[in-house]
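Suppose you are handed only these lines of text.
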Amino acid sequence: MQTFSCLSTQTLAWTHRGQDPIHLNPRLLNSTFMLRSSPLVSAVSTTPPPPSTPLINTHHSLPPDQVELFKSLESWASQCVLPFLKPVEQCWQPQNFLPDPTLPFDEFTDQVRALQDRTAGLPDDYLVVLVGDMITEEALPTYQSFLNRLDGVRDETGASLGPWAQWIRAWTAEENRHGDLLRTYLYLSGRVDMEMIERTIQYLIGAGMDFGTEHNPYLGFVYTSFQERATFISHGNTARLSKESGDPVLARICGTVASDEKRHENAYAKIVEKLLEVDPTVAMLAIEDMMRKRIRMPAHMMFDGRDPHLFDHFSVVAQRLGVYTANDYADILEFFIERWKLEKLEGLTGEGKGAQDFVCGLAPRIRKLQELADEKARKKASSGVEFSWIFGKDGVNQD
Ligand SMILES: [Fe+2]
Ligand SMILES: [Fe+2]
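From them, the structure of the protein bound to fe (ii) ion can be written out as follows.
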């Protein structure tokens, strides 16, 4: 699981059938998380930035009938979702891509040197994006907690035998390899400031995240479908760029992680597809709801103790390198409209049809925002931003 939305810096004001979908949570205003616009947040801050659009996420929005319906899908989940997981013995492990410490010392250090030779040519801005991706993967505890808050899905005992609980644990275990591998590879490269990266991870896990999914598995699995596809795209692009920069091993690493994300995307998309089949209106409304809230990628609370706008700065670099862009966000939406056959969905109530119209007409509006994001990236590209992760070097302008 992973990454960022370049739309995070855009203000989207679509209202939710007359309701404002974004509410300020007054409790947050009194917490250590001060608003970004607050004068108390200086250029050098010791407090992490707050969520840009705090959401009230304390209620359980799925009615009991729908929770029961969800629970009734357990045998289907066993047959159709759990097979997307791979047995441990068939899974790759980080060590498969790393210098082998069981070799004689000289051979091991030769492998480390070869890694450092390969990574020496990686541009600084590429490293910024790769580090941001890795940090996002490393905040995995936040994502497992998120899944365990979903009604009808959560792992009630911590070792429950139900298929949803099994999925949560095994998905987490598969994802855990992503951050481990990227982190170790970056550490061995000697190109990045591991202490600042580790602080950022600690801040990010400590900050948590409100995904806006209200304990609701319909909303939750729409979110994870989008998010896994976003990470599939992002890791796929970092694979392409590392190949172009002369590190085929790193390309294989990013490509392998991307293929995991794709498999997970397929599982989550299949769940939403099933919900659209058995409960089309509620599922369609869930898709609309998440689109109106906007899918916020999990690392938007990242902070390194120095840059209160770290995520925005990171997103600009990702946008400029084409690793993840506002256009990708629109592509993902169009992909799922097609994948879930939303335009042809039948059996909807009037409200459901309204949601269908909104979602199916949204991509062009998002693409317009692409132009704004491009403009912002161009402006930022010439301003120069120092990233602590690469020892304070400018991660926008390449060396
Ligand atoms: Fe993932
Ligand atoms: Fe991942």
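What can we learn from it? Residues 248-278 form the longest helix (31 residues). Residues 1-2, 137, 175, 178, 231, 261 surround fe (ii) ion (ligand 2) (CB under 6 Å).
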